[in-house]
Amino acid sequence: MxxxxxxxxxxxxxxxxxxxxxxxxxxxxxLQSFVVNGVRSAKSKIPxxxxxxxxxxxxxxxHDQKKDLHRLKEIKQASPLVSIPFSAAKSAMVMFCxxxxxxVVREGQSNLxxxxxxxxxxxxxxQMQTGFDDWHVLFLxxxxxxxxxxxxxxxxxxxxxxxxxxxxxENILHFLNDKEGIKPGNAExxxxxxxxxxxxxxxxxxxxxxxSLQVLREVFA
Length: 221
Hints:
Number of helices: 7
Oligomer: single chain
Radius of gyration: 18 Å
Helix content: 25-40%
Mean pLDDT: 90
Order of helices and strands: EEEEEHHHHHHH
Largest sheet: 5 strands, mixed, barrel
Distance between the termini: 48 Å
Structural class: alpha+beta
Number of strands: 5
Low-confidence stretches: none
């Protein structure tokens, strides 16, 4: 069955001689994996940039709910990104957040609120020229609501992690509770990322380690 849907690219890896297997967060079917033949050949008409993390796409797919690996009939950009691919900081952020998203979205299960929220956050980041250095921390924090995991307070979110790695929480709690004028430093942001990941790991199975975290920390060192 042919099905048209918007999709957010999360990751891809080489497959056989000239193909790729990519993972998309789709509007209609949640997390899905696709094999795209010939995209790594010199004659391919499909730009490889379409498969970079958080590319915003429209796809027409051959959908079969009995299969784990699907095929595409058409793929194109839905909203071209003008700054993210050319910014080392933004690229590191989206690589990290796309890896997280790939672990929390369920295979074959639509989550329209999370999809719409993610799509708009990506578009907003692409438009931002300054003031985006907290974007990835806020992405993790605010993602909890459409996942149905929103805590009642900042202290609930970080409480268990405080026992593992104590820190002065005044600025962190103000930031997590959306108080204006609070700009955490790099050490505080790294602490919050660890706390948010620990929170997700407590509530969701299969989180595991995050490979792109080290790259993110090197960029923002």
